[in-house]
Design a protein that fits this description.
Blueprint lengths: L3 E3 L9 H6 L4 E4 L12 H12 L4 E6 L5 H5 L4 H17 L5 E2 L4
Parallel strand pairs: 1-2, 2-3, 3-4
Length: 105
């Protein structure tokens, strides 16, 4: 079992140092600064991954790649947004991040 910690990115009030101090070896995070529907470019994924690795942490899980409302409603530019979503998932996989979860609260 791997102990992971949810981290909301560089603006989170919990620091990566605190996560390490708590004993976690992995992080569950997302690129919340990227607009819903836009592609998560590999450069942005690598930037976050490197930041975590500099603290001895692994990006274990993505929570989550948001699904745009136009996809849910199948309206407007939903086909382009699905293509963007697919590209994001491929980019994550290419960087070794193979788990995406969702929180439907």
């Amino acid at each position: 079992m791997k102990e992971t910690w949810r981290w909301f990115g560089p603006e989170d009030s919990v620091s990566l140092e605190q996560i390490v101090q708590a004993g976690a070896t992995g992080v569950v995070t997302a690129l919340d600064h990227i607009a819903t529907g836009d592609v998560w470019l590999r450069a942005e994924i690598v930037k976050r991954k490197v930041l975590l690795e500099e603290h001895g942490l692994e990006w274990s899980v993505v929570e989550s790649v948001p699904v745009h409302q136009n996809i849910k409603l199948r309206k407007g530019d939903f086909a382009r947004l699905i293509d963007n979503y697919r590209e994001t998932v491929r980019n994550l996989g290419a960087e070794g991040i193979n788990r995406v979860c969702y929180n439907f609260m």
